[in-house]
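Changelog-adjacent note: as of this version, every example in the card shows the full chain rather than a window. The one below runs 154 residues end to end.
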Amino acid sequence: MTATKQQRQRLIADWLRCGRIGSQEELVARLGLAGISATQTTASRDLDELGAVKQRDEGSIRYVLPDRIDGSQAGERLDRILGEWVVSIETAGSLIVMRTPPGSANLVASAMDAADLPEIAGTIAGDDTIFVALCDGVTPGVGAQMLRERRAKG
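Full-length structure tokens:
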């Protein structure tokens, strides 16, 4: 079976929502059983692009999607992702503009959305740029400084 990247990632996301995948090797094996050839590198990239992270649950470790992460872990994950993936944070009018390496903006925006920060109304991500809309009453300078401080923690 030949699967496109989108089909493969949709299948992986379904497995993460319904089951327990504890390692990239396990994911590669499950894909193989489904007739999809994939390497550990491909599995790693797919998990990263889906925003999946490892979480301890009921005594075991498994991958979960951002919408399944509890609040405290979402904040810690955001700090780590900001530290690893954000190149710059600038203000532009009433928005914050964040730059990432190519292909990384969706990962960062997804982590920001999952963290449910009270200052942020939402994000729009391109390939390497994120526009951050702020909630009423939050000035761009204050919002940008908060994100810079979180990035420094990561």
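Structural remarks: The longest helix spans residues 71-85.
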